[in-house]
Amino acid sequence: QEQLVESGGGLVQAGDSLRLSCAASGRTFNMNPMGWFRQAPGKEREFVAAINWSGGNTIYADSLKGRFTISRDNAKNTVYLQMNSLKPEDTAVYYCAARASQYGSVYRERRDYNYWGQGTQVTVFS
């Protein structure tokens, strides 16, 4: 049974905004660090953003800081990725990830996460 489900992707014009959602299914990750990654065609999956269990600490890929914002609403068992001023190079499948361990810090490596969603496609045209 899937534990994380991403939604909110779509086809948008350059300069537009999207908000992606990552909802927990069947259990809660409200005390677990979470992250967003993305994978473009022909490229490796890369780090986008991460957030600690409470939402008080966030980190971003250097190239995305200022345009993307990660947040969470633990009452809704949901993590968000707000994406502004989208560019064609943002086109990718976006994945939500969760650590199995509760609390801890913020994490930017794929190996630091244990649960992954199925991904949601974001396509940006100019």
Keywords:
single chain, 126 residues, mainly beta, 7-stranded mixed beta sheet, 4-stranded antiparallel beta sheet, 11 strands, 0% helix, 45% strand
Account of the protein in words:
The strands form two sheets. Strands 2, 4, 5, 6, 9, 10 and 11 form a seven-stranded mixed beta sheet that branches. Strands 1-3-8-7 form a four-stranded antiparallel beta sheet, with no helix packed on it. The radius of gyration is 13 Å and the shape is globular. It has no helices and eleven strands. A hairpin with a 6-residue loop joins strand 5 and strand 6 (about 60). The protein is mainly beta and about 130 residues long. Helix content is about 0%, strand content about 45%.
Give a quick precis of the structure.
This protein is an all-beta fold and 126 residues long. 0% of the residues lie in helices and 45% in strands.
Mean pLDDT: 96
Q: Between the first and last Cα atoms, what is the distance in angstroms?
A: 38 Å
Radius of gyration: 13 Å
Give the total of beta strands.
Answer: 11
Structural class: mainly beta
Alpha plus pi helix count: 0
Shape: globular
Largest sheet: 7 strands, mixed
Topology:
Elements: E1 4-7, E2 10-13, E3 18-24, E4 34-39, E5 46-51, E6 58-60, E7 68-73, E8 78-83, E9 92-98, E10 115-116, E11 120-125
Parallel strand pairs: 2-11
Antiparallel strand pairs: 1-3, 3-8, 4-5, 4-9, 5-6, 7-8, 9-10, 9-11
